[in-house]
Amino acid sequence: MFTIISMLRGIAMTLYPLPVEIRSYVIHKPRLKVIFPQVDDKKYAHAAVQINQMIYRNVLDLIRLTGYEENETTEVQGSYEIKLNERELLSLTLTVYGYTKGAAHGMTYQRGLTFDVNSGHHYTLAELFRPSAPYVAFLSKDVARQIQEREIPTLEPFTAIAPDQPFYLTDKSLVLFYDLYQLAAYVYGFVYFPISIYALQPLMDEQSPLNKLYY
């Protein structure tokens, strides 16, 4: 039985690489506590350096957006979510909330980051698709459909997504999102638009990282 289990494990690791190991770290200062992830996996040590630096830079950028350094009454909290960690792709969101005394409400900021764990490469939205693919028009059409079907009251008429629209990946979806006030009123929070990777096939070629998630 032990031999059979070992063989099966070996086959599974060959077909589907195991998730990378993630460790949580904390930036702790007066009025500030932000938890963020770092890749801690010897197998991907070289790529981890690039990934971790990118994550940390984005955490610091999000903290700056809260005005923490400029106002001694600003309180900040932050955390993260791993959205995808399989087949040598890592996708996550970093979220930081800041509240300044006297403000009507706090403000939350979010970043989505997606990496190739072999190389450490940080994917842009355009890099998910074949070169010159009309991804902005294609994705905008789906977002427009969802806005209508979900009856989302946009602050301005929706025309198109940005070429660098924030996103993250799950195991079978591309999720585009809008920051607070960017598309809808504050009460609606972040607005998310999941799109099945199977619907994206016309935009893909053999080099698309989305192919790793297709089966």
Helical residues, percent:
10-25%
Structural class: alpha+beta
What's the overall average pLDDT, rounded? Answer: 92
Tell me the number of strands: 8
Basic shape: flat
Q: What is the strand arrangement across the widest sheet?
A: 1-2-3-4-5
User: What series of H and E elements makes up the topology?
Assistant: HEEHEEEHEEE
What about the largest sheet? 5 strands, mixed
Please give the radius of gyration in angstroms.
Answer: 19 Å
The proportion of strand residues reads 25-35%
The number of distinct helices, counting runs of at least 4 residues, comes to: 3
Poorly predicted segments: 1-13
**Span from first to last CA?**
29 Å
Quick recap:
With 215 residues, the chain is of the alpha+beta class. The protein is 23% helix and 30% strand.
Pick out its properties.
215 residues; three-stranded antiparallel β-sheet; alpha+beta; flat
Please characterize this protein's 3D structure:
The protein has 215 residues and is of the alpha+beta class. Helix content is 23%, strand content 30%. The protein has helices at 2-15, 45-65, 135-149, and strands at residues 22-29, 32-39, 75-86, 89-99, 107-116, 167-169, 173-178, 191-196. The strands form 2 sheets. Strands 1-2-3-4-5 form a 5-stranded mixed sheet, covered by helices on one side. A 3-stranded antiparallel sheet has the order 6-7-8, with helices on one face. A hairpin with a 7-residue loop joins strand 4 and strand 5 (107-116). The longest helix has 21 residues, at 45-65. The chain is flat, with a radius of gyration of 19 Å. Residues 1-13 have low confidence and may be disordered.
